[in-house]
Amino acid sequence: METMAKDKVEETRELDWALLPRGEVSQVDGIMLAKNVCNIWDKVWNFQAKPDDLVIASYPKAGTTWTQEIVDLIQNDGDIKKSRRAPIQLRQPFLEWVKPTCSGIDQANAMPSPRTLKTHLPVQLLPPSFWEKNCKIIYVARNAKDNMVSYYYFQRMNKGLPDPGSWDEYFETFLAGKVVWGSWYDHVKGWWRKKDSHPILYLFYEEMMKDPKREIRKVMEFLGKDLKEEILDKIVYNTSFDVMKKNPMTNYINEVRMNHNLSPFMRKGVIGDWKNQFTETQNKRFNEDYEKNMADTSLSFCMEL
Length: 305
Known about the structure:
- By secondary structure, the chain is of the alpha/beta class.
- It has one domain: P-loop containing nucleotide triphosphate hydrolases (Rossmann fold, 3-Layer(aba) Sandwich).
- 45% of the residues lie in helices and 9% in strands.
- The chain contains 16 helices and 6 strands.
- It has a 4-stranded parallel sheet, with helices on both faces.
- The termini are far apart.
- 35% of the residues are buried.
- It comes from Equus caballus.
């Protein structure tokens, strides 16, 4: 009976998701954003940061939730119960997100200090008060090929974003930077440049995968914490892909606009999955585009192990 009831719930959720409309988009300074965010852009832009705010920034599907959970566990000295006090989107408000009942800005304004906030905004659209207050920022970047694949599957399952179309169509859309939150190239390069004049810890998804403890220690030091080795080991374990995928406080399992049956929010969490998606022709075209767009930066990425 219990299994039948569960199946019925899944069937209902699937039906609800199918009936939901796709998120509409508009633009702010040439960057595509959700239309409901653009409608309250003055409120976002004029958000008042506090000096002890911490911002976790990234391009979508670059390891944001992973970094958020690492930060939360460090802040709570590795206490798992504290990190599971609420879904991650309630613990760390998403600045430029709007729901019918509230916005990330409202959530942030209602939170006591110190606050940890999340954003996918490119560097030029981050509210200026964060620069004025000299807030610490952690930025995480992921190689463009894997990022593109992950974003494609995320758009397919998330009704809050536009329909990505076919993979071939999306490949062209992504290369042109005509996706929500703009061009991957501009995003990673813009934040990379900013780290020379602002307290920004710039992390790489691939380095986090290769040596999570080393990268978690970097975050700990950046936050001014000093945790024992056994606590760091505990954080490494509890922020591993397999553990987080099963954690209802991090896997967005109850978000009605996300169809996890179509593609889970936490899909593979590997380096080099693009090889299962790109055709030879696409890979050649991508490499040419990448070389042209990355010629003006010292930023480099690991595309495969």
